Amino acid sequence: MTTILGPQSPAVAAAPRKPRKNNPEKTRENILQAAITEFVQQGLSGARVDAIAERTATSKRMIYYYFGSKEQLYVEVLLKLYGDIRSTEHRLHLDELPAPDAIRRLVEFTFDHHDRNSDFVRIVCIENIHYGEYVKQSPEIRRMSNVVLQALEETLKRGEQEGLFREGLTTVDVHMLISSFCFYRVSNRHTFGEIFQINLLDEQVKQRHKAMICEAVLRYITR
């Protein structure tokens, strides 16, 4: 005889329920990635929290729960993008290389990072439109940047003590020299490329420019 189990049958009641998955860190990361895309495409003023919610299949309420406001979410995007480059710079181990090789490694890394991360360049351009108002709200960005500046300063001092580099170099000036070229060729690639009819995405052009900025920096700092 076959027994039919009813809705209150012990066998049915005992069936285990599938646990509900809840991963706050993954949710937060997904929101950040969607926000990067939205801010890059629309800027801070044009970005909409509704659009970010649609990109992540979540809700505005959830976004506000994690970040409080659109502006605070934008600050977190800045922190993430600056954090990505600063944390990688920190792993270059410049102190393990001869000073000239360390400088070359830093320049090549900066060149490649900007070339591969146009979102970072775009967000920095947007932040400059806002006069750095939101960078001011994140002491962590300044702290991370100072760590990298310190590593560069130690490399320059080491090269100076070894008689390889000029005396009296200003670290932040060298940092600006490196960053400016690497940043400009990405931030202005469309206008510069069109006006002067040069394809800045061409691999041969990239390699030529990378070699050029390495040589320019090393010639500037070398005795």
Automatic annotation (TrEMBL):
Residues 1-25 are annotated as: Disordered. PROSITE patterns: HTH_TETR_2. InterPro entries: Homeodomain-like_sf, HTH-type_TetR-like_transc_reg, HTH_TetR, NicS_C, Tet_transcr_reg_TetR-rel_C_sf. Residues 25-85 form the HTH tetR-type domain. It comes from the Bacteria. GO terms for molecular function: DNA binding. Residues 48-67 bind DNA. Keywords: DNA-binding. The keyword DNA-binding applies. This is Transcriptional regulator, TetR family. It comes from Phytopseudomonas punonensis.
